[in-house]
Batch of 4 targets.
Target 1
Amino acid sequence: MTRSEQDLFSEAAITSFKLNGQFLAIAEELARPAGITAAWWQVLGAVLREPLPVAGIARAMGITRQSVQRIADLLVDKGLAEYRPNPAHRRAKLVAVTDAGYEAVRRIDPQHAEVSAKLAAELGLEQFAQIVESLTRLSAALEAIEVR
């Protein structure tokens, strides 16, 4: 039996929803000992390499600007992030990680590495890399067709 395009789309969506739930549950477990939530970790992770405006974080993470703003405000209140001036846009401040934010993320690293190794062992490194590549291509394709 061949599956139709619509069936494939539905299966991909349902599997993605399940994966999202699984990843969020794991992320919550990993983040908890560091005193942060999965959502906080997600926003901190988006700005580890360079500060970004809230809208840039939202685009990179595929979540709403309002959600990111709320989390960024909490992170700033907790001293895990700070707002910096944005030379490209006076009103859209940049979100940057503080030393305390880097330390929180570093506390996650050992368990993160352990879970990553277990998953790589379960799948095999080559297949794991192929899955990541396929998910990245799927995300890009969805972005390209931009259904509104």
Note: The longest strand covers residues 81-84.
Target 2
Amino acid sequence: MKGQEWYQADEVAQEYDDKRFSQGGQLIDRREKEAVLEAIMPVEDRSILEIACGTGRFTVMLADRGADVVGLDISAAMLQQGRRKTQGANLEGTLEFLRGDAGRLPFPDDHFDTVVAMRFFHLADDPEAFLREMRRVSREQIVFDTFNRFSARSVYNWALPMGSRLYSKSEVSELLAKTNLTLVDVEDDFLAPYGLYRSIPNGLAEPIRTIDTALGGHPVTDHFASVSYWNTRLR
């Protein structure tokens, strides 16, 4: 995995949410959570694993809606931030944070209804191996996102601390075929890159998001979207 040392640093975990999901980054957070919920609904009583759960943005949301969730991450510092979010929380479902390696998941086969991996595959050095392991522990569904090769993200990718692996649609389709997964739905979004949104106040980001949404949703413009949200099922 790219950038493991950087990712596991205490100071990165402490600043992670504020740097990415404050200001205009709130719009990114909202859209990502919407994509996950739309793919999984109904959430209540589902058994869900999130790998690379970070500070628990999705794990806490899903547990609060009645799912039984395990959040797994390699970073102890990130997991500690996630646990702090749940202190005193009255969640409808259950939530456990667990430190572990996404390449060797400590669960038996077919253990979860759904496996979620958001903000993960852009760091994967061997995406097929990770996807196979996710498939092994899932009995129904895998939900994940990818950053797209033909997007604005490629322009500033070199400046990111960990860089990004960028994917074409055909590359992801090939990964699904190799791992015996069936595509249920894919949604493309964010013509403007994430970095732009999180660098400006929400009041400025909202009009940009309105234009972005209006231009998106078409075959031509979707080809240049920064991110794709993939909803897949086991064959």
Note: Residues 25-40 form the longest helix (16 residues).
Target 3
Amino acid sequence: MEFPYGQDPGAPVRSGIPEHGRIPKYYAAKVDLAALLEELGEGGVLPTERELAQRFEVSRETLRQALRELILEGRLRRAGRGTVVAGPKMAQPLSLASYTEGVRDQGREPGRHLVSLDRFRCPPALAADLGLAEGDAVWHMERVLLADDERVGLESTYVAVERVPDLATDFPPDSSFYAYLRRHLGIDFGDADERLETVLATPREALLIGTPGALPMLLIHRLSRDTAGRPLERVRSLYRGDRFSFTTHLGGGGAGG
């Protein structure tokens, strides 16, 4: 199959040029910048805004709009007082594999930093999700997600105290929760329901993850069950949109259209 205008199948048709053919100045500058990023390679330092504006014959404000879009897309990142070419996004599978496994598959070292571990009485909505009675004891564990010591996300886990009574004393919070359940408690995951959406981080979340408040985030809600079908955990995972993409495998013989 030939793709329109010779484009790679993953690229926008006609590189995003409107059908009327009039290209916004910022977008033309963005295309020129993208070509420069290819030349510089990962970690390459961009020239100053003044130099780039002169090079591409655009105003500083037009250039800044192009730079902002490339930063939001994860192709550039701020480093000190400069801007450098970012590495590729991490592709996290939408599966029962843990965050640890997904990041290691990308050749990076996963980690977590504990923000809080609290015990509280379960409210009605959460009780319904976890198959508990209202007021039953529940753990809430909040952790910053790391990849090679870079803050890339924020995870909130809710689990019944009766399922993991010694979480506060026996679980190393910088390790995989799934591995802990499997190795120490003999609990295996059976299936899960997930919902994926895009959101903006709250000011608190942006501060914990270390991102601008305007950066789009990928939010996953997950309700997991064990192999007996019993609800196990409710998880809210927030990932940086400029550092992550998600993949899944689709099977079956249904006709598309």
Note: Residues 25-40 form the longest helix (16 residues).
Target 4
Amino acid sequence: MDIQTIGLIASIITIIMFISPVDQIRDIIKDKTSHGVSPIIYGMMIINGICWVIYGFGINNSFIIIPNAVGAVLGTATLFIIYKYRSHKE
């Protein structure tokens, strides 16, 4: 297996991993509460994704840029939903 194939497989797996919060977003919207959901992990997901994207551009590697950009965007969307449905008493 060549290195390009490994990069493609790793990118696909990373995107699948970053898509996993979509179920949580759906539950938050359905229940209209983000009680019990920590925003810290999603903040770190955004920071991590941005750092990897910058690094990916630095070495001109789309296998790093694309999945981590997806992760940063989905982390941002999740964080937005968490705060939108955060109750005032939490």
Note: The chain has one domain: 3-84.
